[in-house]
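Appendix C reproduces, verbatim, an entry submitted by the partner laboratory led by Prof. M.T., so that reviewers can inspect both the input and the predicted structure.
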Amino acid sequence: MKYQTTDPYDICTSMDIQVIKRPMGASTQSCKGFFLVSSRCKLIVINSDLPESIQRIIIAHELGHAVLHSDSAISAFHEFAMFDDTDRMEYEANVFAAEFMLSDDEVMESLEMQMDFFQMARCLYVPPELLDFKLRILQRQGIKINAPYIAHGDFLKRDLGQPLN
């Protein structure tokens, strides 16, 4: 592991990506966060009105853009709709966030406990849709998993006022 941490804030610091939290509202239409490059300065802005557990997922998603797409010359607000799997860059950032937030081992352990899908998501402190992305990744790697596909591209647009626990 290059950065010796799984904390997205520490990784942003190590990568010289500034993270700013600003209140942007908690409605379904509120911006959750965005990644911006301006004059070679990288910035992630996170909606501070969201629960910390959701902010961590948003920062992992935006970190995905920083790692995978910073060469795309993002010079203004990138995308307000987080987890939109209809767009290639958003899909890639979703996959990055799922891989970043959920280790194969912890997901496999949860599967072995034979919890239902939504119990697993609660146990892993992630929205069910992020778990769905991770399960799809594991299936593509050849792991046999019997779980529903429920991910919708707009899942972070819904009311996220409740912490993930």
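The chain is about 40% helix and 10% strand. Additional entries are available on request from the coordinating office.
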